[in-house]
Amino acid sequence: MAIKVIIMDIDGTLVNDEKVITPLTKETLLKAQDKGVRLVLASGRPTSGLLKLAEELDMRNHHGLFVCFNGSKVVDCQSHETLYNHAISVEDSKAVLEHLKNFKARPMFDKDEYMYVNDVFDNTIIYKGKPFNVMQYESRGNNYILCEKRDLAAFVDFEINKILTFGDPDYLQAHYKEMMEPFKDRLNCMFTSDFYFEYTAKGVDKAKALDSVLIPMGYKKEEMMAFGDAQNDKSMVEYVGLGVAMGNASDELKAVANEITDTNNNDGIAKAIMKHIEL
User: pLDDT of 126-184, one tens digit each?
Assistant: First the structure.
C-alpha cells in the first residue's frame, strides 16, 4: 500500500546532532510533499518549538500536522487549529508541583508564549562534565518568555499539557521513582532525556494522537510511515504500517521497528523514504 503520511520525531531523528535538517533529507521531504504525502512532526516539543522546522519544510502550504508534547496535543500547521488535546487536570497539576517541592528537580511548564519556572537563576546543571543552562536551552529552542512564579502549585489554575522537570542525571536516576510514586497510576511519568523527567496525562502517547486525528481524516495505518529514535517514539513506530528506527535509536526501539535505517547524521530519513516512495 502506498505511503500517504510520514511521521517524524525531531531530536535524534529529523535533525542531526547540530540540530539542523541535512540538505538531502530536506530535499527528499519536499519532493514527498509534492507527490501528495502529508508530513507530521511528532515531538515532545510544544507548537512554538516546531514552527521553524515546519517553515523550512514548507508544511503550511502542504497542510502538515504537529503532534506536540509527546502526543498530548495535535495542531493543524496551516490553520493552527487544535485538533486534539489531552492535558493534565488542574488538580493533578497542582499535586505534582506540590510534590516536586521535595526534590532537587526543577519543574517547568508552558502556557501560550510563557515558560513558568520557580527561579530563573536556578537554571544550570552539570552535564557531561560541563555547566549546562537548561532553561536557556528550553526557552530559546521553543521561543518562550521565561516567567518566574515562586509557588507554581499555588499559581496554576489551568490544565497543563506537560510538566517537565530537569536535574542532574545522577540525581534524577536516584529519585525518579519517588518523584512518580503518587502519580504512577494516573499520569504518564517518564524520562525523555537523562536530564529530563516529565509528566503527561494518562494514556498520552504519539500513537493515540495519530489514531485520534489521522484515522478520522481517512488515512489507514498501513499508509503511514514513522521515524523515531527513543522510548517516547515506541508507540507510534509500533502503530504505523511501516515503523522505522534510526541507526542511532535505542535498542528498545530497534526491537519493535519494521526496519532500521541510517543515523540522523547520515540522512537516515531520506534513505528510507527513497527506498519506499518513488520520488
Answer: 998 999 999 999 999 898 999 999 999 999 999 999 999 999 999 999 999 999 999 99
How many separate domains does the chain show?
Answer: 2
Burial of 71 (0-12, 13-18, 19+ CB in 10 A): buried
Question: Does 118 lie in the same domain as 153?
Answer: yes
d(CA 132, CA 64): 33
Q: What are phi and psi of 130, to 5 degrees?
A: -130, 150
Q: Residue 143 forms beta bridges with which residues? A: none
What backbone torsions phi and psi does residue 49 show, to the nearest 5 degrees? Answer: -80, 0
For residue 162, CA distances in Å to 42, 113, 165, 182, 240 come to: 15, 15, 10, 17, 24
Do residues 100 and 180 both lie within one domain? yes
Q: Are residues 97 and 186 in the same domain?
A: yes
Shared domain check, 175 and 154: yes
Query: What CA–CA distance (Å, rounded) separates 39 from 142?
Result: 20
CATH, residue 215: 3.40.50.1000
For 9, the grid coordinates are 520525531
End position of a domain, from candidates 150, 185, 201: 201
- Rounded to 10 degrees, the C-alpha dihedral 145/151/157/158 comes to 40
Cα–Cα distances (Å) from 266 to 11, 19, 164, 251, in that order, read 14, 13, 30, 19
* pLDDT of the residue at 181: 97
Grid cell for residue 22 = 541535512
Same domain, 139 and 226: no
The domain containing residue 135 runs over which residues?
A: 90-201
pLDDT at residue 192, as a whole number: 85
